């Protein structure tokens, strides 16, 4: 009769070594600070970007929570995005600066990075073709567009960015063709 002996050794790593695989970063997105338990906003894509990668999650109902696991140590920018919504960082119950925010992911900031909160508010979007930024597409936009024409391959400056309707860096006939379609209601 043969006897087989199997020995297993288990080594437990200290907490700091276990966290070397990554940290959890997360929080919640609310639409009403007076009702945080019922005003979570679902469907927000939260992206954190830094030298060690880009990671994202989508907030879920009903609390608007978003967890991102296995994030390496480093400095990251946190940006929530959902069309038609603007986001402001909440710190200790007080609404602060608009997103994005910058965080440091490490053992020292562990608790802080698991409770990142944003207040979501609906925000106006500028209609395509609203070159002068007044919220409507009209004759004034045609005049503003004419002042921004660069021709093909020209460089549209910052104040003419809204006239670059095809996003190719210039304001030319391609942009004018798009403006005509928008102006006509198409």
Report on the structure:
The chain is of the alpha+beta class and 186 residues long. It has 2 domains: 107 residues, Immunoglobulin-like, CATH 2.60.40; 45 residues, no CATH class. Helix content is 13%, strand content 32%. It contains 3 helices and 9 strands. The protein starts with 14 loop residues before the first helix and ends with a helix.
The N- and C-terminal alpha carbons lie at a distance of: 87 Å
What is CATH's topology name of the largest domain? Immunoglobulin-like
What would CATH call the architecture of the largest domain? Sandwich
Instruction: Give, in order, the helices and strands.
Output: HEEEEEEEEEHH
**What Rg is obtained from the alpha carbons, in whole angstroms?**
25 Å
Identify the overall geometry. elongated
Query: How much helicity do the residues have?
Result: 10-25%
- Total DSSP helices: 3
Please give the largest β-sheet.
5 strands, mixed
Number of domains: 2
Q: What structural category arises from helix and sheet content?
A: alpha+beta
Instruction: Tally the beta strands.
Output: 9
Poorly predicted ranges: 1-19
- Tell me the CATH superfamily of the largest domain: Immunoglobulins
The whole-number mean of residue pLDDT values reads 85
Helix-strand layout with pairing:
Layout: H1 15-18, E1 23-30, E2 45-50, E3 53-58, E4 65-71, E5 74-81, E6 85-91, E7 94-98, E8 101-105, E9 116-122, H2 139-148, H3 173-183
Parallel strand pairs: 1-9
Antiparallel strand pairs: 1-4, 2-3, 2-5, 5-8, 6-7, 6-9
